[in-house]
Design brief:
The protein is built from 6 helices and 25 strands. By secondary structure, the protein is of the alpha+beta class. It folds into 3 domains: 115 residues, DNA Polymerase III, Chain A, domain 2; 126 residues, DNA Polymerase III, subunit A, domain 2 (DNA Polymerase III, Chain A, domain 2, Roll); 114 residues, DNA Polymerase III, subunit A, domain 2 (DNA Polymerase III, Chain A, domain 2, Roll), CATH 3.10.150. The strands form 4 sheets. It has an 8-stranded antiparallel β-sheet. The radius of gyration is 25 Å and the shape is elongated.
């Protein structure tokens, strides 16, 4: 095999695929990227057995073939080569290693047999539709902060993606929760997505998908089955196994009848939470909100490090209520609010609170209160 490729093209392809590769692997071949040169293209593939990314690029192929080489080492070499360099990858002859040469630089890298590289089996991905890249990115951004990291509740370790209906409108909905907070975002249901099964996409593929969306302006072709999901993003294809489990009935925990409504300016609120949380206990980071007529007081009382409070103006005309929340969760939600105001809907100090965005009617959040 011998091919020549521009350094920028190689770097982009390796940057996309090598992120899948774990730094520590018990199976050596999983540390490698599979390079397949044929025709006028080079195809780069990396996998961790649960997820696979393939990127195809243009290249000058002098002799076709396949090789696997260390993914992170290749990426670091490409990153450090001068801009505009022409990079030649070659294997053959007496040397069993792959030679990478660019200008006066030359590297010899160990390889493993391409026949040992695991290929993710393809299956019938029955439902295919195209979604706008910016809308997919929005769904991820609005919800991924609420994905659980608790491995015992593995079915919460991803984003629940499914077709739904609200007020007679068909939507593609993304939901994530860790049991303490919930984030929901939706967009118009793309044509062809009506029959998609409800799926749970794991955290790692979500992170890689979001990174790939940075470079994309077009639509994303999404193909779904009961066990896998595939995203075609220009020259890159991300395929992932899905979480095999049932997502909880999240609709039951979204309070729709909360009648105490507080509207507060998002930016001053977030800044105030951040300030008073400086002295909250590290574990719970609890902040007490006391809301009365047109007034909001944020307070923290920590026996070890002192107390703090800050007063803000708020649009509120109901009876006084005091309720505690994790400061980190408040800041995460405030960070997703696009409008000038965050709208809090309370029932009482022990019940879930619903938060909506004055600038985005297609997103909502639920926060479980803390005892303070």
């Amino acid at each position: 095999m011998k091919l020549t490729i521009e350094r920028a093209v190689l770097l982009k392809a390796l940057g996309h695929v090598q992120a899948v590769v774990e730094r520590r692997n018990t199976i050596p071949i999983l540390s490698n990227v599979l390079i397949n040169a044929s025709g006028e293209h080079a195809r780069f593939t990396a996998t961790d057995l649960d997820m696979e990314i393939v990127e195809e690029t243009e290249a000058r192929v002098e002799s076709e073939g396949m090789v696997t080489a260390p993914a992170h080492t290749l990426y670091e070499i490409a990153r450090k080569l001068p801009e505009g360099a022409e990079v030649t990858l070659e294997i053959g002859g007496a040397d069993p290693r792959m030679t990478l040469s660019a200008g006066r630089s030359q590297f010899n890298l160990p390889v493993l047999p391409p026949g040992d590289f695991p290929v993710m089996p393809s299956e019938d991905l029955a439902v295919t539709f195209t979604a706008p890249a910016e809308e997919l990115a929005r769904l991820i951004d609005k919800t991924r902060f609420a994905i659980s990291t608790e491995e015992t509740r593995y079915y919460l370790n991803g984003i629940h993606l499914h077709a739904a209906e609200r007020d007679g409108r068909k939507v593609l909905r993304a939901v994530a929760t860790d049991g303490h907070r919930l984030a929901l975002a939706e967009t118009d249901l793309p044509d062809g997505a009506e029959a998609m099964p409800a799926v749970i996409v794991p955290r790692k593929p979500i992170q890689e998908l979001r990174r790939l969306l940075e470079d994309l302006d077009d639509g994303v072709e999404v193909s779904v089955s009961e066990g896998k999901i595939r995203f075609q993003l220009g020259a890159a294809v991300l395929t992932s196994k899905l979480i095999d489990g049932s997502f909880p009935d999240y609709e039951r925990v979204i309070p729709r009848e909360n009648d105490k409504i507080m509207k507060v300016d998002r930016a001053p609120f977030a800044q105030a939470v951040d300030r008073v949380a400086t002295i909250s206990q590290e574990k719970s980071r609890s902040v007490k909100l006391t809301v009365s007529d047109s007034n909001l007081v944020l307070a923290v009382n920590n026996p070890e490090s002192g107390a703090a409070s800050e007063e803000l103006g708020a649009d509120y005309g109901d009876e006084e209520i005091s309720i505690g929340f994790n400061a980190r969760y408040l800041l995460d939600v405030a960070g997703q609010i696009e409008g000038d105001e965050a709208i809090f809907e309370f029932a009482d100090s022990a019940s879930p609170t619903r938060v909506t965005d004055s600038g985005d009617p297609n997103a909502e959040y639920v926060l479980m209160p803390l005892r303070v």
